[in-house]
């Protein structure tokens, strides 16, 4: 397993412990200039031989380059059969709870080369601080429309797993690799990732600030308009991120309704096997009611804006198609006009030739009569 981490002190230890229990042989970790104690935790695991620790303090969103090098070294130095490129807030596991990752990959056909793994976002009540592994107990299965309504663009993108290859390239974000996928694991060997991206306001706001500033420092790397990190960074700068953070989490009433509808499904495998290092500092729902309501207003406005943007884009596409159709019609009309002109010219030429020939015959006849 490879991972590039920065300021993940609240979760990095349980994440490493989980994957060691799952049978990962080597964890190559690059610390990206952490200042919150993450580096010291990684050093302890490195001293025990559980982690190969590297350092890259540059903050310019160079994840793709760094992870690619770690993935290549996993094959060329450590002889990896399979490589999982992970983030510190991800817990990889088989869907079958009776299996471990080792069980899966020992029995998995390497001929498939690479495949995508579903990433499931975990949610629950918000908190001011804390790891929250015993609080974020629900698989977030809300529809895209429901996510848009609370200011979220979509669920997390699947991650790519690949066989060990010294020339592999991992694309920024770990979602794509250069090795083509030639199949998928059979259902009994399927794996998934439980993702904990918004563990607390303290962790989330720091991550948004770190990520946004790194993108601003990056050269040649332009995030899309819908990039979740940069959208949150703009909210942080506007002073609306806390309200947005609250609103994207379900209230107790939302949870009850979501559990009944299937939008939230309880998932306790991490909660029951892993300790949270940082204790939770809960959000007082009554005292934060105004912020929660503000988040609802912001989410509603952003949803309306995105809807209008989608409609405008669709109208633009229709206008573009119409313009092409008009252009093609004009071209066809032009061709028909040219054809008519050519036909008319040909007709006139033919008629002129006939007139000339007739005139010649008349002149010849007159000339003959004069000589009789």
TrEMBL record:
InterPro entries: Nucleotide-diphossugar_trans (IPR029044). Gene3D superfamilies: Spore Coat Polysaccharide Biosynthesis Protein SpsA, Chain A. It holds the Pfam family Glyco_tranf_2_4. CDD domains: Glyco_tranf_GTA_type (cd00761). SUPFAM superfamilies: Nucleotide-diphospho-sugar transferases. It comes from the Bacteria. This is Glycosyltransferase family 2 protein. It comes from Cryobacterium sandaracinum. The lineage of its organism: Bacteria, Bacillati, Actinomycetota, Actinomycetes, Micrococcales.
